Amino acid sequence: MNRRHFLKTVGISAAALASATCRHALAADSKDKPNFIIIFIDDQGYQDLGCFGSPNIKTPNIDQMAKDGMRFTDFYSAASVCTPSRAALMTGCYPERVGNLGVLFPRNNTGLNPEETTIAKMLKPLGYATACVGKWHLGHLKEFLPTSHGFDSYYGIPYSNDMTIAANMKLAKDIVLRENETPETLKKPKRNLVPLMRDEEVIEYPADQNTLTKRYTQEAIGFIKKSKGDGKSFFLYMPHTMPHIPLYASPEFEGSSDAGLYGDCIQEIDWSVGEIIKTLKTEGIDKNTFIVYTSDNGPWNLRGNKTDKVKGNKNRRIGGSALPLKGWKFQKWEGGMREPTVMCWPGRIPAGKVCKELAGTIDMLPTIAALSGAKLPEKKIDGKDITPLIEARRGAKTPHEAYFYRTKGVRSGNWKFIENKLFDLSKDISESKNLAADNPEVVDRLKKLLEAHKAEMSKEKRPCGRVGAAPQKKKGKKK
Q: What are phi and psi of 265, to 5 degrees?
């Protein structure tokens, strides 16, 4: 049975575009460089992998990744919602530094400024083939799509799957219209019906979300094989649409888990990871490929999250689990921003290791720069090179004196300060015991770090990208 309806500023300068074209033209031979794959899940709970303790979701392929590589227990997204977390991953910056974008909707005319340097744009001068396959959510207008941010190609849904089609999107001549949609009905968008895009055109509407994970996987495998055939190293960014709600899984995986449709989605993503790793091995490039698996933020706090009443099975959860962490998506507690993370690179990352040092998605850009020999962006970034951590070097420690939960909280060492509360995460991972009154000197130190961070982000904030004039605010009635 199909259960897909389970839950229902600045302009772009010509100089910047010319510069991007020039960098592309000067690309060097990349064949001896390592490949990079970032698999970015949407709204996955900290516990929702076998290797992170899930009691009812089976993820044998990701678990094998952990056995062959390294599991990171203290790895953070830079936000607890979609758009800012993706901006941080792509740029190596806290979201506040690169425009402080909120969650973008089809009505918005803003996006990640193309003058920012993304991982893809950074790798282009080295001759890398680059592809984004999946959910972008950094602006759906042409100026903000992956093809304007250093990616050779894009295939996926431009924002969250509970949104609509945006006005005036470019439709492919051979667009596939489903569910009785016509060019006329497109003018009346419906929630949960979203466009599937290739590069800058809509190729299917509404996207058949039951087959998205499978089609993303096929697209990714095709890109890997083509890059190998062309003699190019590659960067594959694979931000999955699932398990954002509404939830969808292909018929082969629907009903496969003991964790409801949410678990089915995760198990299909695990299958996808296995297919990608299998392709790397078949192509003989697995030992030259660095793979990162992580999530953009924690799971939704769904009503009836305890059990699936339809099945009457008390062990069958509907939504994700952040246990033993506190909090959910949208929150700055650990459950909203600490993510289940696995990294693998046979021969480079020691097998079966666990890293408990603090690191995050903002560290991916500078780390990839160090591993590839790419030049870091000229503009200031916040991430650090964590190569010593992924290589498990003796005595390697986090490069961060402090890590910030947006501008609301800060972690330094094992101490976390948020909402005037202090927690020792080494002894209280669930943030249940406020130690502020007993440690005033720690509170004072962390307060100063947080205030300094707020001041820096306010002073050094760079503009987001914007097409056209800023929307006028509606005047409210005088009271």
A: -60, -45
The 3-state DSSP class for residue 274 equals helix
Domain count, the chain: 1
Comparing CA positions, the residue from 378, 337, 379, 377 lying closest to residue 361 is 337
Question: What pLDDT band is residue 186 in, cutting at 50, 70 and 90?
Answer: confident
- At residue 178, φ and ψ (nearest 5 deg) are -115, 170
Please say whether the beta carbons of 244 and 46 come within 8 A: no
Summarize the confidence of residues 276-289 as an average pLDDT.
98
Mapping DSSP to helix (H, G, I), strand (E, B) and coil, where does residue 399 land?
Answer: coil
Q: Is residue 461 domain-resident?
A: no
Summarised one tens digit per residue, pLDDT across range 362-386 is 999 999 999 999 999 999 999 999 9
Give the pLDDT of residue 303.
Answer: 57
> Residue 476: what pLDDT?
46
pLDDT tens digits, 120-159:
999 999 999 999 999 999 999 999 999 999 999 999 999 9
Contact between residue 44 and residue 57 where contact means Cβ atoms under 8 Å apart: no
Q: 115: domain range?
A: 23-161+207-395
Q: What does 207-241 look like in DSSP terms, one character per residue?
A: --GGGHHHHHHHHHHHHHHHHHHTT--EEEEEE--
DSSP secondary structure code for residue 117 in this structure = P
Contact status, residue 265 vs residue 249, Cβ threshold 8 Å: yes
Helix orientation angle between 60-68 and 260-282, rounded to the nearest 10 degrees = 50
In the prediction, which pLDDT does 110 show? 97
In a domain, 470, yes or no: no
pLDDT above 90 (res 308) = no
Return d(Cα 169, Cα 186) in angstroms, integer: 10
The token duo for 153 is: 């190609």
* Position 183 in a domain: no
**pTM as predicted:** 0.90
What would the pLDDT profile of 231-259 be if each residue is shown by its tens digit?
Answer: 999 999 999 999 999 999 999 999 999 99
> Which of 18-24's residues contact partners 24+ apart within 8 Å by CB, and which partners?
20/114, 20/121, 20/148, 20/150, 23/121, 23/124, 23/125, 24/124
Which of 22, 24, 51, 82 is catalytic? The answer is 82
Q: Could you tell me whether strands 403-405 and 465-466 are parallel, antiparallel, or unpaired per DSSP bridges?
A: unpaired
Q: Is residue 228 part of a domain?
A: yes
Three-state DSSP class for residue 360: strand
- In residues, how long is the chain? 479
Please say if 400 is a catalytic residue.
no
Active site residue 137: yes
Q: How many helices (H) and strands (E) does the chain have?
A: 10, 19
Q: Which of 132, 137, 140, 240 is catalytic?
A: 137
Mean pLDDT of the residues in the chain: 90
Task: Report the CATH number that the domain containing residue 142 is assigned in CATH.
Answer: 3.40.720.10
